């Protein structure tokens, strides 16, 4: 079964609404910008652990992708991001009000994609989805709060990325498991598998920002450093820096600079001295191993788990 | 049964979330600003037509109030309104990003208030709620579009207020009816009763803006005229104006003015010459009569309908 092709085809069939065009065209626009469609893929792969009958899983799987794009739409507005996947963001191409309102409708449409489920499984799925949705908003709010806070602990940062990024991946796995007929216990292991993969995935993103290959990363390398973003790398460096290294960081972080390249180089030099790259890779590996342990406890033959295992590995080893 | 007191008490018990405070405090703030709580009241009164057992109706009724306040929060941001019920709006008291994100969580929390319903009634209720929610967004988008459109027909305007205001009142009635055990037909009549009342209610609002008593209206009289809002009154006047009256309107509408009072007086003078007030009252009365016909077709004793009938009358005759 070619799940990615199935997802692409099903997404193309979704009907969000017609009029007013200014409300619905931005939804079609952002959904057409592409992306790896990892979330619905995780849901289908998770369900496929337990059953070959996936027809009822497709629309709920798409709900996770519509929801994810809703968060991108509103986050891009809040972050005043000019581009998304190399194209103008909705608030740039239209205006901020259109971005607010189109996003609101996307959240409604995401909910609607669950309503064909059997009524008896609906309440639990919707409760879990709603809790996840609120947590994703909490993560985004923490992320914005951290921009102006001087003291952010590593624990606070990890909690923020868990909420903002990881819990949705966990939900995607749990959703597929439950719709595939998994036990509560197996669904919970898959949720934790997804959350751990999500944490590792986001840390990998932080790492690529500093140590990625400009040619394959697709974003400007060092962007987090230039924007003073309190990532795991920076917070760890700040926690471990010698007085001399503290001074270097203090000279560059939170200070306007005319020379962004010099800033990136200086901060990266401190990272290198402190082995921040290896430390981050260690934490990624640790989350990945936790994830695999949860997957191992799902009572399904290993051969059946191979595609999900492979995708998790790809997400860890990606260069972009 | 004192429904308003019951609603107030139940609203005070709602728990939206704790941290981050910047996400949840604005929700408690806007919900505490008050308002007439008409939507949950309509739901309870509608359910009470059919049953005295209303315990399962309260939380879904509150969902309509949380949803309504979510729309106010995002609309105030989009309209850049400084005040809501005499207090600073959320985007003013905090900032626009907080308003976006707190609103998003409110929409999620509104959905959650339905999830205790019996699974078998859940899908239809959620479908109807989601359709209504999308329509309310459509109405807001039309309203914003109309600000920059030169040609808006009266039919387009009536469709806009139907979507932006009336369909939610219709949903409140339908929700109560269905949860009270009404037949599909009775639920549909109550939905239409609510929609007609909503249309009349909004037209009454347009009328009060121009002809209300400044002391009781609570908003600045003539605000719609000053802001060139294309209301039923203005669109009707433009459609019926003589060349001389057209010239008066053209001199004032869409033209920046140092003297707002002169503008209000000039436009109102044209309204008076064209009997716009009586025409608007006629249309309100027509919607009200349609509403009553739908209520009459609900197979319940008249005595049982009295409280709902009385509330509808109050909404029509209000001075603020």
Topology:
The structure is a homodimer of 320-residue chains.
Chain A: H1 3-13, H2 21-32, H3 38-48, H4 58-78, E1 83-84, E2 87-88, H5 90-93, H6 96-112, H7 122-148, H8 154-180, H9 184-211, H10 214-217, H11 223-226, H12 232-240, H13 243-252, H14 260-273, H15 276-296, H16 302-317
Antiparallel strand pairs in A: 1-2
Question: Could you please describe the fold and organization of this structure?
Answer:
Two copies of one chain form a homodimer. The first copy, chain A, is mainly α. Chain A has two domains: 153 residues, Farnesyl Diphosphate Synthase; 138 residues, Farnesyl Diphosphate Synthase. Chain A is built from 16 helices and two strands. A two-stranded antiparallel sheet of chain A has the order 1-2. In chain A, helix 3 runs antiparallel to helix 16 and helix 13 packs antiparallel against helix 14. The longest helix of chain A has 28 residues. The first copy, chain A, is globular and about 60 Å long. At the A-B interface, helix 4, helix 6 and helix 7 of A face helix 4, helix 6 and helix 7 of B.
């Amino acid at each position: 079964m070619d799940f990615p092709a199935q997802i692409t085809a099903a997404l193309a069939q979704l009907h969000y609404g017609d009029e007013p065009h200014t409300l619905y065209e931005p939804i079609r626009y952002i959904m057409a910008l592409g992306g790896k469609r990892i979330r619905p893929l995780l849901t289908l792969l998770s369900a496929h652990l337990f059953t070959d009958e996936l027809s009822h899983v497709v629309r709920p799987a798409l709900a996770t992708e519509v929801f994810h794009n809703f968060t991108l739409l509103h986050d891009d507005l809040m972050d005043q991001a000019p581009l998304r996947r190399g194209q103008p963001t909705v608030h740039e191409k239209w205006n901020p009000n259109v971005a607010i309102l189109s996003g609101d409708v996307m959240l409604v449409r995401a909910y609607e994609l669950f309503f064909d489920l059997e009524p008896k499984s609906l309440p639990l799925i919707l409760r879990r989805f709603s809790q996840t949705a609120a947590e994703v908003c909490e993560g985004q709010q923490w992320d914005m709060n951290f921009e102006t806070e001087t003291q952010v602990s590593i624990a606070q940062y990890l909690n923020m990325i868990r909420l903002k990024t990881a819990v949705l991946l966990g939900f995607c796995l749990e959703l597929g498991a439950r719709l595939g007929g998994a036990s509560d216990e197996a669904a919970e292991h898959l949720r934790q598998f997804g959350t751990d993969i999500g944490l590792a995935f986001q840390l990998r993103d932080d790492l690529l920002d500093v140590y990625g290959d400009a040619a394959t990363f697709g974003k400007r390398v060092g962007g987090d450093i230039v924007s003073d973003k309190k990532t795991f790398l920076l917070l760890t460096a700040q926690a471990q820096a010698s007085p001399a290294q503290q001074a270097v960081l203090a000279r560059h972080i939170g200070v306007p600079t005319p020379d962004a390249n010099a800033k990136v180089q200086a901060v990266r030099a401190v990272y290198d001295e402190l082995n921040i790259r290896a430390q981050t890779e260690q934490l990624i590996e640790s989350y990945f191993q936790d994830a695999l342990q949860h997957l191992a406890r799902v009572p399904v033959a290993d051969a059946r788990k191979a595609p999900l295992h492979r995708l998790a590995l790809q997400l860890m080893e990606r260069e972009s």
